[in-house]
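Entry 14. Ran structure prediction on the chain below.
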Amino acid sequence: MFSRKDRPTWRDRYPNEVTCVRCLETREQAYLDRLLWCDRCRARARNRAAWWGWVGGLLFGACVAIYVWTVIRPTDLVIGGWIGTLIAAVWIGSKVARELIYGVMRFRNAHAVEASPPDAPDGPGAPGPPEATGS
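Output, structure tokens:
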């Protein structure tokens, strides 16, 4: 049968220069991943997911704080421990939310639909080519 080095990879199916599906810029194949996103688009998506991740972490931390305050009702003796628990909940919640949001962004790939080629005159709302008439 085929040995591991004889089997074709996903990169073998594409030419040396491939268009990023996110920004529609042509890049070398080595700078794109399996979903055909370039390094810059991945970094921008990671940054956006990180920001939304902190929002999700703060919401999760607020929910944990409400639970601790109403159900557990901490004493003044170990209040520092509960504050540490809430800080850890915010931090862990932000990391989990960041990864979930990044995964959803990669799965949905919404910007690929809205992207316009770099040489397009007016962006996504630009008029297309004139339609042929049947006359």
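The chain is about 50% helix and 5% strand. Will compare against last week's run tomorrow.
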